[in-house]
Design brief:
With about 110 residues, the protein is mainly α. It is built from four helices and no strands.
């Protein structure tokens, strides 16, 4: 039975990532940025300025490597339509503690 209207599901994730070699992360982020389909003339920064900025910010580099399109890549009939993600250096934020206020924590 096919649904007439898609059901929208919100997926919230938080990962802790240990980085042993920040240069490897910077290199991967740079490769991803250089291969991205970006219309650089319409951007405020040039490609080289964006690369330089990315290479000075580990959190931004880690966040740039997140690929939400791969989450459901092999699931027909489901797609990631939009999302928001970021990375922060340091301990987990108090506002994103596992189980806090979630229905799963109450079961």
């Amino acid at each position: 039975m096919e649904q007439a209207k898609p059901i929208v599901v919100q997926l919230y994730c938080r990962f802790e990532i240990a980085v042993d070699d920040s240069d490897v992360v910077f290199e991967a982020a740079e490769r991803r940025l250089r291969s991205a389909d970006i219309d650089w003339p319409s951007e405020q920064d040039t490609l080289e300025e964006a690369v330089a900025e990315l290479r000075t910010d580990l959190a931004q580099s880690v966040a740039s490597l997140v690929d939400p399109d791969r989450v459901l890549a092999d699931v027909p009939g489901a797609e990631v339509r939009r999302g928001r993600w970021w990375a922060e250096i340091g301990a987990p934020s108090e506002r994103f503690q596992p189980g806090f206020g979630s229905p799963a924590a109450e079961t």
